[in-house]
Amino acid sequence: MNQITFLKRFVRRFFILAFIIVMIDSGVVDAATYFVAVTGNDSENGSETSPFRTIKKGVTVLGAGDTLYVKAGVYAESILSWKTPIPNGKSWDKPVTVAVYPGHTVTITPPKGHAFFWINDGQPKYLIIDGFIVDGEDRALHGFKFHENTRYVRVQNVEVKNSTASGILVTPGPDLSSNDTFHEFIKMKVHHNGHSRLDHGFYISTSSNLMESNEIFLNPGYGIHIYESKINTAHYNVVRYNLVYQNSWDGWSCGILLSSGEGNAAYGNIAYENFIGLCSQYRSTDSLIFNNVAYNNSAYGIYVGQSSNLNTGVYNNTIYKNGIYGVFVGDGSRNAKVKNNIVYMNKSQNIFDGEPGKSEASFLNNFTANPLFMNVSKNDFHLQAGSSAIDAGIPIDGIFLDHDRNPRVIGKASDIGAFEMSEDSSPPTVPRNFRIVTDK
């Protein structure tokens, strides 16, 4: 072989190899799909006709872009990252996915003291967990636990129930200078977790997480508890469009708590029959609470205060028939701004400043007369035509949509309260008056 022929072959092979690498990296090469079934065997290849027996085995073969489908059955498993290394995806466009096979029902019963996924490897996972029922059977510690700066896990369409402690626990690692974990919890049901007010539906102590469109109920402590006991590590978390009810059955707690950081936001939520609906407390700075509905809570609709609370904004909420106060501000709160809220028929007082003058709170353009709700017997707090709250709002920077995600200004000005009146009176996108009765 002469030198020219050799060089031609070398160049051709080099470009073929480079093309293959580019194709794989760009996702053009098909991602793999594996299967798990109760009739499977971990010595098989994981195909649909020769599935694995355990989720643990299936996880070990995955790569970025791959999917593991789990077929119907009950699986007594726990995936612990220090025992079963969990592969990483590359992005949300090329994640690792562990999901229930479409149309099937899969229940996970983790062992005593464990969780379904307990991840502490401190890596960016780009992991999606989709569709499972996680039943702690009053022995598993949590449904999910992510800590040591593990990042980018999305849990969706999952039910978590009957854990002995909080259903979902997210805690920081030792390096508190980088505490953004970017987890997403979407369309979950989280209920009957724990035995005391120290146990919650969600317990979040890190930053930049999303809790969206979840149903959170009958947990003894808080529904969503964004908190760190000693220092501020929980910043810029978003809690939106959740239904949070009948938590707090073991004493003083909130349906949703924003604390221990700056820039946390709760909007578009419905909170009822908790001890308190929504709270901003404990070293909280620049929290935002807007477009929420809080009704029939035992004590307060919205509570702002307690231990160095600064600059909380309470805007365009609808707060109705709570057991003591509609909005309470005090106990260490400074410079709270309470504007454009409907606060009506709360038992003791609609709006209460616990430290008049000292709190430096501002209360502006709140509506405490009869707002003409559409149908309070069905918990429909939209406004009827003719309500004096329509077009009576004042502008608030950054609030462009209402509770139903409609444009905030329809007419001459925005409406007061969570809902913007429009000619279309179709039902809201989030259900208003349903209960789910679940056997423990």
Describe the 3D structure:
The protein has 440 residues and is mainly β. It has a domain of 269 residues: Pectate Lyase C-like, CATH 2.160.20.10. Helix content is 7%, strand content 32%. It has a 13-stranded parallel beta sheet. The N and C termini lie far apart (76 Å). The C terminus is likely disordered.
Topology:
Layout: H1 3-26, E1 33-36, H2 55-60, E2 67-70, E3 73-75, E4 79-80, E5 96-100, E6 106-108, E7 117-119, E8 124-130, E9 133-135, E10 144-146, E11 151-156, E12 159-161, E13 168-170, E14 184-186, E15 189-191, E16 202-204, E17 210-212, E18 215-217, E19 224-226, E20 238-240, E21 243-245, E22 254-258, E23 261-262, E24 265-267, E25 270-272, E26 276-280, E27 284-285, E28 288-290, E29 293-295, E30 300-305, E31 309-310, E32 313-315, E33 318-320, E34 325-330, E35 333-334, E36 337-339, E37 342-344, E38 349-353, E39 362-364, E40 373-375, E41 380-383
Parallel strand pairs: 1-2, 2-5, 3-6, 4-7, 5-8, 6-9, 7-10, 8-11, 9-12, 10-13, 11-14, 12-15, 13-16, 14-17, 15-18, 16-19, 17-20, 18-21, 19-22, 20-24, 21-25, 22-26, 23-27, 24-28, 25-29, 26-30, 28-32, 29-33, 30-34, 31-35, 32-36, 33-37, 34-38, 36-39
Antiparallel strand pairs: 40-41
